Every structure is written in C-alpha cells, then in structure tokens.
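Researcher: We're teaching a course module on how sequence relates to structure. For the next exercise, students receive a sequence and then see the predicted structure as tokens, so they can try to spot secondary structure elements on their own. Here is the exercise chain.
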Amino acid sequence: MITDFQDWARSRQVRIETSLQTLLPPANVAPERLHDAMRYTVLGGGKRVRPLLAFAAGELSNADEERVTIAAAAVELIHAYSLVHDDLPCMDDDVLRRGKPACHVAYDEATALLAGDSLQSLAFQLLGEYRLADTPQMQLEMVKRLAQAAGSRGMAGGQAVDLASVGESLTLPELEFMHIHKTGALIRAAVILGARCGGSLNESQSTGLDHFAKCIGLAFQVVDDVLDAEATPATLGKTAGKDAENNKPTYVSILGAGRARELAEELRCDAYQSLEVFGTMAGRLRQVTDFIIRREF
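Model: And here is the predicted structure for the students to work with:
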C-alpha cells in the first residue's frame, strides 16, 4: 500500500511539474528576467502537497485529471507567490527557500515582488481560460473560493495577523484563527477545487470534505511548527529555527513539541472521521493525510 501511494504521488508530482513548465511563460519571452524569476520560484521544488490533495479529492467526484491538473496548478501558483512575498525583507526576511536562495536573493526585491504578483494573476487566468467544471456557476464558485482563500479573509489576512503577533503571547484559539487563514485556507481550497472538477457531492459529503480540509490545514501547520523547531535546514529546505529566533507564537511555543505532535495525531483522526461518509473512495485522501502529518516526525 505504501509503495502504491509513493507511485501514485510521484506520478502526480511529475504531472503537475510538467504542466507548470508549460503553463508558465517561457524565460526567453520578454520581460525575460521576470519570467525567469517566476520559473525559478515555481519549478523544481516542493512536495506539491496541495496538488496531491486536489488530485486525491478529485477521485471522490470522479473528476477528469486534466481538469484537476489545471486547478491544482492554479493553487500551486498562489502558494508559490505567497512564498516569494513571505520571504521578502518586509515580511519574514528569509534567504533560503526549497533548498536554494529565495527569489529576492537570487534576483532582487523588485523582481521578486513582481514575480509574486504575476504568479497570482496567472493562477486566476488559468481558472478563466480552461473549462474545469460541469457548469459555469460551479466554475465561478471555484474562482471565488480561490480568491477568498488568497485574500484578506484567507492567506493574506493570516499573514497580517502573523506579522502583528511577533513578540506577542497568543492563546491557542488565537493561534488557530491565524493558521486557519494563513495556511489552512489555501489547503482547503485545494481540496474543494479538486473535488469540484468532477460531479456534485451531496450535502453530507460536502460538509465532511470541508471539515476534513479544515483539519488537515491545521495539522499541516502543527507539523510545520514542530519541524521548524527540530529539523535541519537540509531537511526543511529553508532556514530552521526561524520562528523561535523571531519570537513568533507557534504550536510548539504554546504547547511544547510533544503535545504539538499529539495534536497533529488528533487532527489526523478527526480528518479520517470526516471522510467516513465517502467509504473506500477516500482511501487516497487518507494516504495523503498520513503523508502530510507524519512527514519527518
């Protein structure tokens, strides 16, 4: 079963990488430096967790993989843009991303800012350029979902709370609120968009899937906090210990590493329970859940 999942995940990672190579503007097309920075940022790095979630969720609705590929690429472009901006000196001021110099280090701050802006625009261009759902109304809902996940009520809003929380003592609910937006919103969007590329789900299925996505979004951040505290830069592909150095509130600083691990496992169980309505159809999503929560623990 593990080998089966590894083969499945590898094939989807190759699929999304190939698609992104095609969908991104060529580096030899003007403005060359900007396009080169966009490709540098997106290609050849990361586990592609969000696309894997989209592909696995698409299996619940018998979605066409061509559709899911475009939706997953859009989500991954939003994620990549957020990493470029998060690494800027005015944000988290990090110099390493996915095992190589951050975009603003490899190029310059202005180019990095524009690369992030352009990746975000390209994501929405894809959602408008390709037919991804059975009805125009459903496709509009997908656009709305991704826009909300990326904006002030999602990822950008969560980042604003994160920046304002440096040096502050947050309660656990306050920390959860921040990460439901900063990290969880885009992960939830990946799951929902993947499923909506196929047939309609009934009300109980939709509710269960959304709760699953919320659980896995939080769990992803809990694991990230533990890894930031304990893993090496070689393992992370980015600067380790950055949260503690910057005095940022995390699940580890509030709960301790041991209790944070327990919370991740509790969220995994909750996520599994949310998928019971799908029976064996959710097998792949359960495997992706384990891949996310148990990585490098």
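Model: If you want an answer key for the exercise: The two ends are 20 Å apart (CA to CA). The longest strand covers residues 96-97.
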